[in-house]
Amino acid sequence: MLPFLQNLNDGNKQPLNQVMENLANHFKLTPEDLALQVPSGKMGLFKNRVSWTKSYLKNAGLVHYPERGVYQITPLGLDFLKTNPKKLRMQELLQFPMYKEWRFNFNSNVDLQGTDKESNKIDEEELTPQERLTTTIDAIHQQLASDILDTLKENTFQYFEKFVVQLLQSMGYGGFRKDSGIVTGAIGDNGIDGVILQDVLGLESVGIQAKRYTTNNAGSGDIRNFIGSLAVKGFNKGVFLTTSSFSPEAIKTASESKQHKIILIDGKKLANLAIEFNVGVQVEQIIQLKRIDMDFFDDTL
């Protein structure tokens, strides 16, 4: 991670191919080194490690992506380099608030300080192969969820509205036909960004509010406005989805609504639902775990 960051210390934007070329030269990698593949054979080992590196640096706020596939150091990253660091590993990332917040948001076993909640956490060497595999898959999903949210925040609010309607349909709501999900978000939409028709005649419908926040949380006022919009439109059920999170007051307002059933989906849950129901993601690799069939060996051959 440190050579990656030092490579960007001039403050200029660099495309991925330039970053990889500079790092390959730094590490004096041979063509044979660069030809190595990850076990699945679907990506070069070096490119895979560069990809994880830039993700961790971005999570810590040390680099950002001004354009797709383009990287640039942040003021925080420049300040860090001015301290003449000798190394930059996972442990050093814990000094950065953004990284600790990212770990807290996407890892249920981590507290607000970015450290593991489990005081008796088992060392990785003591984990069984199956436990290590599960831990690895969890880490990949955490980063994937983070990437999904980043992509949604970088896109338009119109895109986000279409995304949430498609997600709800993929979850089985309004599954009787493809056009059961309607994007209504526009000027004069009365605060309803989408509608899911629960039956053919539309007798039961769900109102949707989609807030693409990049920094602010959804507050109690947002929920009250949504409830008012549902009442105007005649809906008694609504789903409020956001790329950020909900304030405690917002959660309380939604739970205390008597006339309307309100479901809140924050950014973390939104991204995990997208992964679970395969919206905006694709299967990269399927791993089969096999065990011995003792019934086969117990039979007389």
Structure, explained:
The chain is of the alpha/beta class. The chain has 2 domains: 2-98, Arc Repressor Mutant, subunit A; 157-276, 3-Layer(aba) Sandwich (Trna Endonuclease, Chain: A, domain 1). It contains 13 helices and 8 strands. The strands form 2 sheets. A 5-stranded mixed beta sheet has the order 4-5-6-7-8, with helices on both faces. Strands 1-3-2 form a 3-stranded antiparallel beta sheet. Helix 10 links the parallel strand 6 and strand 7. Helix 10 (220-233) runs parallel beside helix 11 (248-255). The longest helix is centred in the middle third of the chain and has 26 residues, at 129-154. The chain is globular. The N and C termini lie far apart (57 Å). The model has no long low-confidence stretch (mean pLDDT 86).
**Fraction of residues in helix:** 40-55%
**Biggest β-sheet: count, sense, barrel?**
5 strands, mixed
**In one word, what is the shape?**
globular
Give helix and strand order, one letter per element, not per position. HEHHHEEHHHHHEEEHEHEHH
CATH class of the largest domain: Alpha Beta
Number of domains: 2
Q: Give, in spatial order, the strands making up the sheet with the most strands.
A: 4-5-6-7-8
**Number of beta strands:** 8
Rg from Cα: 23 Å
How many individual helices?
13
Q: Indicate the multimeric state.
A: single chain
Based on secondary structure, the structural category is: alpha/beta
